[in-house]
Amino acid sequence: MTIFASTSAPASADRLAHSLLPVTARHLRAGPNGADDEGQGGNQTGIATKTRPKTKRPSLYRVLLLNDDYTPMEFVILILEQVFNKSRDEATRIMLHVHNKGVGECGIYPYEVAETKVTRVMDAARQNQHPLQCVMEKQ
């Protein structure tokens, strides 16, 4: 910023200090045209509100194991323990449900998690040459 000093009269310290005064409450109340709001009721107060966007809960997907006649029960239990973090008892219960009913639910997860678990099951079954099928469906 460049300041031009007048050569005819030196700037006094008072005039310089006056030009650097902070903005007063009167200046803050001035309307868009520079008019003061005091004639319209004086100090006006308002409530500051902060809007929060509504976050939508992610859709959940059921991960299901499908029964077949060739995959060993012990392999299904191993998959349930390793991929779905089930205890031995819970894995056995789910495996028997799949064996007796034809399908069994392994868990309910958001889309990305469910997709990852299905992929892990299918990869493990393929590597071990088992026809085990795992699918996901929207809940």
UniProtKB/TrEMBL annotation:
<keyword id="KW-0645">Protease</keyword>
<dbReference type="GO" id="GO:0030163">
    <property type="term" value="P:protein catabolic process"/>
</dbReference>
<protein>
    <recommendedName>
        <fullName>ATP-dependent Clp protease adapter protein ClpS</fullName>
    </recommendedName>
</protein>
<feature type="domain" description="Adaptor protein ClpS core">
    <location>
        <begin position="56"/>
        <end position="134"/>
    </location>
</feature>
<dbReference type="GO" id="GO:0006508">
    <property type="term" value="P:proteolysis"/>
</dbReference>
<comment type="function">
    <text>Involved in the modulation of the specificity of the ClpAP-mediated ATP-dependent protein degradation.</text>
</comment>
<keyword id="KW-0378">Hydrolase</keyword>
<feature type="region of interest" description="Disordered">
    <location>
        <begin position="28"/>
        <end position="54"/>
    </location>
</feature>
<dbReference type="Pfam" id="PF02617">
    <property type="entry name" value="ClpS"/>
</dbReference>
<dbReference type="InterPro" id="IPR003769">
    <property type="entry name" value="ClpS_core"/>
</dbReference>
<dbReference type="GO" id="GO:0008233">
    <property type="term" value="F:peptidase activity"/>
</dbReference>
<dbReference type="InterPro" id="IPR022935">
    <property type="entry name" value="ClpS"/>
</dbReference>
<dbReference type="InterPro" id="IPR014719">
    <property type="entry name" value="Ribosomal_bL12_C/ClpS-like"/>
</dbReference>
<comment type="subunit">
    <text>Binds to the N-terminal domain of the chaperone ClpA.</text>
</comment>
<comment type="similarity">
    <text>Belongs to the ClpS family.</text>
</comment>
